[in-house]
Design a protein that fits this description.
5-stranded parallel β-sheet; Hypothetical Protein Ychn, Chain: A; alpha/beta; 2 domains; 17% strand
Length: 143
C-alpha cells in the first residue's frame, strides 16, 4: 500500500509538471497563419483586405494568428507614402500584421524604399513569397 501511494504521488507530481508544457504545445498548434495577396492598385480592394485582416485578428485574437499581406505589380502603388490607404496600412502594421513589398516590382517600376511607407517589409519576389507561405501551410486569401 505504501508503495502504491509513493507511485501515485510521483505520478501526480509528474502530471502537474507536464501540464503547462502540454498546454503550451496545444496553444502553439492552435496558432493560425494567413497570407493575403493584394496586387491591385485599387483602394477598395485594399480596404477590403485591411478589413479582413482586422476581422481575423478580432475573431481569433492577435496573439493567435500570424498575418502577412504581400503586394506586387500595380498594388505596389498603394504602399507609397502618398497612398490614399496609408493611414489604414499604418494601423494594420501597428496591430501586428506584416505588410511586404515585392522588390522585383520595385526594381521594374524604379520605386525606392524611400518612396514607400515606413515599417513595411520587403520580399525578393511577391509571387514566390506567396508560393512559399502556402507550401509552409499558411492559408491564402486574395480579396
Amino acid at each position: 500500500m505504501k508503495k502504491l501511494l509513493q507511485i501515485l504521488t510521483v505520478l501526480a507530481a509528474f502530471a502537474t509538471a507536464v501540464a503547462p508544457a502540454v498546454q503550451a504545445a496545444e496553444t502553439a498548434a492552435a496558432r493560425h497563419k494567413v497570407v493575403f495577396q493584394v496586387s491591385d492598385n485599387d483602394p477598395a480592394k485594399w480596404n477590403l483586405a485591411l478589413n479582413n485582416i482586422r476581422n481575423v485578428q478580432q475573431d481569433l485574437g492577435r496573439e493567435n494568428v500570424d498575418i502577412e499581406l504581400i503586394t506586387y505589380g500595380p498594388g505596389l502603388n498603394m504602399l507609397k507614402v502618398d497612398s490614399v490607404v496609408a493611414a489604414r496600412i499604418a494601423e494594420t502594421l501597428s496591430a501586428g500584421a506584416g505588410v511586404f513589398a515585392c522588390e522585383n516590382t520595385m526594381r521594374n517600376t524604379k520605386t525606392t524604399k524611400a518612396d514607400l511607407l515606413p515599417n513595411i517589409g520587403f520580399v525578393k519576389a511577391g509571387v514566390t513569397a506567396l508560393m512559399l507561405r502556402q507550401s509552409e501551410g499558411w492559408a491564402y486569401i486574395r480579396p
